[in-house]
Write a structure and sequence with these properties.
The protein is α+β, with helices and mostly antiparallel strands and 259 residues long. The chain is built from five helices and ten strands; from the N terminus they run H-H-H-E-E-E-E-E-E-E-E-E-H-E-H. The strands form two sheets. A five-stranded antiparallel β-sheet has the order 2-1-10-5-8. A five-stranded antiparallel β-sheet has the order 3-4-9-6-7, with no helix packed on it.
């Protein structure tokens, strides 16, 4: 072995010795690294399982907690006070006029005049007017159907009742129509006519207007029924639907019977 080769072997051995020493010896700790940038939000988690029912507490419970719980249906409470009255419903359809009753027993002859002595103290009528036109205002109503007229004190052509037997009389009327109406019972025994009105609000169903009064009449005083203008509209005056007017009157008692 030459001197040069020996020198190389010595150098290699020295290098290997140095490396083994570095591995076995403790080195200086390095610095802590800088924090990294925040990561992105993760995906939403899976919905959890349904929890156990809340157990009822034996002591006082927070009202807020009670609102969150649904308990068993309680017993029926007492009935509340009656509410306000509701709106009136639509008027039902009017029924058909009834058939006239049989004639009554003849009355006693209590009249003082010769005419009353011959005919007795009787006076009653029931007449009907059926029309499709509106009733003319401030005009006497005439009638096209006479049901009863004993002994004939009402003139259907003029619509005027003339008192033959002085006494107390009852007069009444009924109308069936689909339009606003005002009717008045007029007489020369009254200072002013007595007016009854009914205003049609829904313009659909028939409605009934009724009025009546008792009058003390002297001989030859008259009574009639007439149409009155009050709050009716122009459209009411042009109405062409069927209207029926029933006018009735009869003697309650004569003056001789009350004396």
């Amino acid at each position: 072995m030459s001197r040069g080769e020996l020198a190389v072997l010595v150098g290699v051995a020295s290098l290997l010795s140095t490396v083994q020493c570095d591995v076995g010896c403790g080195g200086t700790d390095g610095k802590v690294g800088e924090p990294g940038a925040p990561g992105r939000d993760g995906w939403p988690g899976v919905k959890g399982q349904k929890g156990e029912p809340v157990a009822s507490a034996s002591g006082p419970v927070d009202p807020v907690v009670l609102l969150r719980q649904r308990g068993e249906k309680g017993s029926r409470g007492p009935q509340g006070t009656m509410g306000p009255k509701g709106y009136a419903g639509d008027l039902g359809a009017a029924g058909r006029p009834g058939n006239p009753g049989p004639p009554g027993q003849p009355g006693k002859n209590i009249g003082h005049s010769q005419q009353a002595s011959n005919q007795g103290a009787r006076s009653a009528f029931s007449v009907i007017q059926t029309t499709s036109s509106h009733l003319p205002y401030r005009q006497k109503i005439t009638y096209d159907n006479t049901v009863v007229n004993i002994p004939g004190d009402l003139d259907a052509n003029t619509g005027i009742f003339t008192c033959r037997i002085p006494g107390a009389y009852y007069f009444t009327f009924n109308t069936v129509a689909r339009v606003s109406l005002c009717l008045g019972i007029a007489s020369d025994a009254l200072d002013n006519k007595v007016v009854f009105c009914d205003y049609h609000k829904f313009n659909r169903n028939e409605q009934v207007l009724t009025g009546g009064l008792v009058l003390q009449l002297a001989q030859d005083q008259t009574v009639w029924l007439e149409s009155v203008r009050d709050q009716q509209t122009e459209a009411d005056g042009r109405d062409t639907r069927e209207k029926k007017i029933f006018f009735n009157g009869f003697l309650l008692f004569s003056n001789a019977a009350g004396s």
